[in-house]
Design brief:
This protein is mainly alpha-helical. The chain is built from 10 helices and 10 strands. Helix content is 46%, strand content 11%. Keywords: Endoplasmic reticulum, Heme, Iron, Membrane, Metal-binding, Microsome, Monooxygenase, Oxidoreductase.
Length: 295
């Protein structure tokens, strides 16, 4: 029997952790080092704001950081005896989860995005023009550049609303008995959000089956209920790979659309895509087939 991919990643994480502990010169500015250096008092943790603990895109993170500074929630508390330190097993688990959360869902989202762009060629051309202008102005496409692609982000967000890559990911434990209408959710019960149904609920999304990227535009996104869009979950326990996944997707799409036009092929599904559920993910049942024509 061969070793599982997870087992290989865990062993790699263990070896890197050991090397960094033994040799300070191997320190890096990355997530692993942040976890190794983490030491937070319980008082600091309890006083940290909801927004500060929630992963978002880079614009949101900067805003939340500024709000935290204004509210005094990002300062270190002194004189507290009890500290929270991540164990080595927790660091390894989060390191592996980071890659799983940032790659599998991204590849699925890119497949859905390709389907959308082929079915809406006018939207594809508008995204391409935005990418072309950015590349012309900046001379490159990198982390800082792709975060300026506002319409591309709108299209990606609306694609993940129509086709959320993960549909049974968002779950929470009820901390106390909670009465809602004629039912009571008991303390300790697991509560799972039906992401796909939430994203297609007409109470939150007018004409939910219509693909409309403008829902997420700067002029209209304030109309969106903050918890009605959850491809990455919501709140302090949302997806650890959120920013990494969004960056990957935007960079891949920008570079692809700068050089290629996506058009239908013999196997391309036009209209609604046939999907399938695999444990926790929503995936294209028959794959996504498109033709890439070099510009």
């Amino acid at each position: 029997m061969g070793r599982s991919p997870n087992g290989i990643l865990f062993d790699m994480a263990r070896d890197i952790i050991q090397l960094r502990k033994e040799n300070p010169s191997l320190r890096r500015k990355d997530l692993l080092q942040l976890m190794l250096d983490t030491k937070m008092s319980t008082e600091e943790m309890s006083s940290m704001s909801y927004e500060k603990m929630t992963a978002g895109n880079d614009k949101e993170s900067q805003a939340n950081g500024q709000n935290g500074a204004k509210n005094g929630t990002n300062g270190v508390k002194h004189g507290v005896k009890s500290d929270i330190v991540l164990t080595e097993d927790e660091i390894k688990a989060n390191s592996v989860l980071f890659y799983e959360a940032g790659y599998e869902t991204t590849s699925t989202a890119l497949g859905f995005m390709a389907h959308i762009l082929v079915n809406y060629p006018d939207i594809q051309e508008r995204v391409r023009e935005e990418v072309r202008q950015l590349h012309e102005n900046e001379g490159k496409l990198d982390f800082n550049c792709v975060n300026k692609l506002e319409y591309l982000e709108c299209v990606l967000n609306e694609t993940m609303r129509i086709y959320p890559p993960v549909i049974t990911f968002v779950s929470r434990e009820c901390l106390q008995d909670y009465k809602y209408k004629d039912i009571t959710i008991p303390k300790g019960a697991g509560v799972q959000i039906a992401t796909h149904y939430l994203h297609h609920d007409p109470d939150y999304w007018p004409e939910p089956e219509v693909f409309d990227p403008e829902r997420f535009s700067a002029d209209r996104k304030h109309e969106i209920h903050p918890n009605s869009w959850q491809p990455f979950g919501s709140g302090p326990r949302n997806c650890i790979g959120l920013r990494f996944a969004l960056f990957e997707a935007k960079l891949a799409l920008a570079k692809l659309l700068l050089n290629y036009r996506l058009i239908p092929g013999p196997k391309t599904e036009m209209g609604a895509l046939t999907t399938d559920i695999k444990i926790i993910t929503l995936t294209p049942k028959n794959g996504v087939y498109v033709k890439a024509v070099k510009l």
